[in-house]
What we know:
It comes from Heterodera trifolii. Residues 1-19 form the signal peptide. There is one protein chain. This protein folds into 4 domains: 3-231, Jelly Rolls; 236-451, Jelly Rolls (Sandwich), CATH 2.60.120.200; 467-644, Jelly Rolls (Sandwich); 653-823, Jelly Rolls, CATH 2.60.120. It is 7% helix and 34% strand. It contains 9 helices and 49 strands. The strands form 10 sheets. Strands 3, 5, 6, 7, 9, 12 and 14 form a 7-stranded antiparallel β-sheet that branches.
Amino acid sequence: MSIIIQLWCIAFIASVVICKPANGLSEQYRKELYYLDFYLGIRPANEQGDLEVEERSIDKYIESAAHLNCDFRLNCLWANAPSDGLLDTSEFYLLTKSDRKAFPIQVGPGNAHPPTGTHFAFAGNLTKEPQSAVLVSAPIASQSSTGILSFEYWLYNSARLEVLLLKVNPVRGHLTVIERPITDCHFLKTNGLCRVEIRKQSEPFRLAIRVFKLLDPAVGSFGMLTKVRYEAELSTFHVKWAMKIHGPPIFGGLPTARWLRQRRPISSASNLNCGREDGQNENFEECLWADFAKTPGTNTAHWAIGEHTQHWEQIMRTTPSSRPKGQFYFQYVDPVAEFPLPQLRSVLIPCTQTPSSLSFKFWLSLGLQAQICTLGSDNVALSCVYLNDADAPGPLTIDVDTADHQPFRFAFNVLRIDRGANGGAAVVALDDIRYSGWLCHESAPTAPPPRLPPLSSLLQLRLPPSAAFVDTVQAFSDSLECSFERGDQCPHWMHSVSDLESGESEEEAEELPDSQRFWLGSVPRRPPFPVDPSFRGAQVAVALLNRNAPEEQFAILTSRPIPCAEKGRLTIAYFASPGAQLSVCANEQCVSPKRKREADSMSVALNSAHSFRIRIVAERNNSMPISQNDLHEPFILIKSIAARSGFCSLSSAAELACQALNCAFGSEGLCKFKTLFLAAGDVPFVVTPSGEGIVARFSRGMRRAILKSRHFRLPSNEQLEMHLEASLSTFGSRLYICPDEQQKTVARLSMEKTGPNGVETDPLREFGYCELLMGPKVEERRIERMVVQLDPELRHFSLVAVHDKSEQFGDAEVQLNRVEIRDTGDRPIC
């Protein structure tokens, strides 16, 4: 598209007219360029009017704040944002002052006499619908102090401007706002210098200058800026990091060992081992694995050594299940990383005389695809295996043939990521690397001992799904029965927060670490360890108990809460290896089988007048001797759990949700709801003096009240409704329901709301999406009954009362009387 199509011409005849020329070098186009020059003395700075951008560096992290300083004379680290149809719908163009003509009084507040040769970034439009243009900087990995972004600016007619902090890459094609700093830069300022304070930032971001409200079909509007200056301290650790591994610091990352000193030959396969299962006394910098990039220094996604797992769930974007211990390798695939990415390579293995195996634990972000390959001495791939996130965290064992007695090495590398799903970034992590086999120069036994894979590999262990990620029919089974042998995953026996039920606190339902959980597995038909014949080829629940760990070793299966029991009987079919024993616990009492047989069926009678849980505990028994010939850890296998008579009925998902949400406010207090304070101006819900409901009272300076529900699960096969009784007292007050699916404490996206002093904080900014239930039009105070259909995916919500119009309409009260859960036939659930 030519400059004729791109540029706006401006004519000041009593007022400014902005028009967009038609295609081609028309007479009208020349006339408009004439007006542009005649009335403002500005013209295109180059043939196309394009911004001059430092293309090689616009997607690389800056190493100094001064790198963003820009007068637009030379190539800068500022560019037009990709248009997303929301924040950005137009473009900035490069204009220059061509003479000493003064700007008209309607253009301000910048200097009316900019020197000849001054360059401007210019955005304008002539439409009925408002347009906007966004100018974005090169990415900044982190900012360790408060920073200042300043620039000179000019506005005309309705044009406004603001400064934004954006995620480095668009998410699903949309610019994503991290923060909107206060931007007090408008037409009526006494000078044309816009100065915006940028708070400390710990995550990667881009600065953005947005000119918006570009409209008015009669005279149009525009904004111009120049002399951009950025002053801030970038993290000194980041600068050091950028010089070594070129990316933002996470997990306390350290560079891997230098590749040049890795070229010494290994003397045995175990030389490639890296990491300890307990994570103690590790030194990954001495391991014979290192980051390798074909063109060093040009990529931001180098492999590094992690030292902690702070913010693991936020960075990995996965459900908390397990994480590395101690040090580990990781690769942060940065939003600006370029493919092909650096690899994590082992040193060269001279050759092996027998097949060998490599085992390791791994973790992948959602949408990331990675592989491990063997490479020949010429770095050509010999064979590759994809890392499947369903197998994570492992350990995963890879068998390697002898490679015809030729040298080879291992290499981990990332193939692709779904940048739209992850906001442009993803992580792969590795730990507990073990290599076993016989090298060619080693004196191997005449009959090499059989390679015994870890028990976890032999049993094909995998973590069972927690109740939070399965259908409610499985998560809230009406029976305690469980047959692992038939392939049941039995999430109702897997302890998790999602299983939180009436009368329990969240602390009582905390997740167990992986080392204390049962796993799902399959026993080989010909296992290389002794096991009862009835268990061969069976699917089972497995508890592994480390024989060498100094602390107690145990694993637990935990039932759903049981309301009561009278002569209930629980029977467990299990197998215990030497050094392991099984117990059943309830109400702080435990029983173990009297006969110490390896394969048995344990039956326990249970009585309780109160709600209780059953815990099946596998533990290491130090009093039982373990033979030196036992090459594997103590373990317990469970085939099935049977429950016979005497147990009270278990509550359904609908009944549990009803128990969590039903409330006659006032007479029952707040029930299981709680009132929150997230910001200044928040007020509580309190019981009314009459005891008929709860009320939030608003006066000047008080603007919001939040009532948050507890966690619940809704049935997937049944539609439920929430009936709510509430009243508003004053015009302008509102009541919202906010689903809170992401449990946000601080929203990254907020609704734009312009007041007399610029952009105000939106009262719903902590919530991703809210639906208006009542208000703002209030004619008289009366109790209204509303019906809200509950989405089966909903896990908790907040009722948010807002009154930010006290100065206009006076004080207000928002009262809640009752919440009741019913089915679609208007029948109460509980």
